[in-house]
Amino acid sequence: MTNALLGSRPAEILMVEDNEYDVLLTREVFKETKLRINLHHVETGEECMAFLRKQGCYAHAPTPDLILLDLNLPVMDGREVLAELSADDALRQLLVVLLVSNPQDQDLLQKHKLRHCPTITKPVDFPQLLRVIKTIHGCWLTVVMFPGEMPHAGAS
Amino acid sequence: MAIISCAHDDAGRARVTHAPDRGAATSPPASAPPASTLAATTLEEALSQLALPEQGPRDEGPGEQATSLQRELQAAREQLARQQAALEKSEQARLRAQHELQQLVYVVSHDLPAPLRGIIGFLQLLQRRYEQELDPNARDWIGRSIANAEQLRTLLNELLAYSRIGSSTQPFEDVPLNDLFAACVQHLAPRIQVTGAHVTRDELPIVWGDRQQLQQLLQHLLDNSLKFVRARPPRIHVGAERRDGDWIISVQDNGLGIEPKHQPRIFDVFSRLHRTQDYPGTGIGLAVCRRVVDRHGGELWVESQAGQGSIFRFTLRERTPEPP
């Protein structure tokens, strides 16, 4: 994290998403922002937990600076991942942004009292990411931006 | 059966004691078993006992009566069973239909938006990255594809919003319509400003309902009045009157009005009387209004003539006092 704050390494973002097109589009959006981002991708809640605990093939995975977590995942959904994260002392501090896709998800958030969680309505675009990051971590952006390279989308 | 024979034995033994020469075995029961023993059996058992032919010739009269009673009872029981089976069947059908509807809503809400998001996303990517390399035709067609896909997304979202009205679990509360009116006016402020509309209200009551849905209702009606404008400036008035314990809320405008022959279908989903180019919108607004009013146990109707403005009225209730 210290290195990231100094801007000497790219930001590590983990996207937990079962729709490959959403991942592909997010990757393209990140490319356009010219931020130094390593986007990691897992498809399920179980893989997400293995990634974060550096288990199995994720033994050398970095600790992500941010997790983009889809709410609707097969088997272990976003809600359960959140519950497991908050029950784990080592993982509780991780920054999580929930990805929602429709108004039904908003109902779900309300029902499960997750409204305090920062959310992005899919598709992931930079203005939303920027808005959310500003609310959770004032200086996080300085982590990933090259000096003088304010992305065009950031102005909106 | 056992109880009755017991009573019989008791009676017989009594006779043996007091008149040994007559013989207990030949004497028929002097009377019906005592009421106290009958009370211990079910009505059904008692009836079957009374109907037994071996009870002796003296029982024939009441026995026949009992047999017919028993037949009636049997018939009634069979009818009840048939009705119960029919009821269970229709309840199962209803539950199945409800489940299928929920599934449909789930598919519409979860499975359809994802591919649509993909279509819009990649088209936009194509537009952003390659627009300069394409000829005007290709640029136009990509633009149209995006516009159409976005229209589809809007329709989908509105259909979803419509379907969610019935399944809302938000508890009812006291809703001051004055506050709701203020919120709607604030929300519609840009439109009110552009059209120069005069939007006024009576003193409005506090009603019992779902605040968010009631705001949707009022907002859609005000929005309609701001959209279908005839006279300048548009004048919109929200009124309230008491009738038979209910409140009748009215939204009156001096707009285009609606011909009576079109009025029955204006509350249908996606029903529109104008071209989208002339008056934008999907035609879900009034359908949402009707559904909201339905859910609140009220009625919604319109009084209008073409060219003479419209009055939309709906009924709402106050909170019913808790029984003491």
Describe the model.
The complex is a heterodimer of chains A (156) and B (324). Chain A has 156 residues and is of the alpha/beta class. Chain A contains seven helices and five strands. Chain A has a five-stranded parallel beta sheet with strand order 2-1-3-4-5. In chain A, helix 5 links the parallel strand 4 (96-100) and strand 5. The two termini of chain A are 28 Å apart. Residues 139-156 of chain A have low confidence and may be disordered. Chain B is an alpha+beta fold. Chain B has helices at 2-18, 35-39, 43-51, 60-111, 113-130, 136-167, 177-187, 189-195, 211-227, 285-295; strands spanning 173-176, 198-201, 206-209, 235-243, 246-253, 300-304, 310-316. In chain B, strands 2-4-5-7-6 form a five-stranded mixed beta sheet. A two-stranded antiparallel ribbon of chain B has the order 1-3. In chain B, a hairpin with a 5-residue loop joins strand 6 (300-304) and strand 7 (310-316). The longest helix of chain B has 52 residues, at 60-111. The model of chain B is unreliable at 1-40 (pLDDT under 50). Chains A and B meet through helix 2 and helix 5 of A and helix 4, helix 5 and helix 6 of B.
Quick overview of this protein structure:
The complex is a heterodimer of chains A (156) and B (324). In chain A, 39% of the residues lie in helices and 16% in strands.
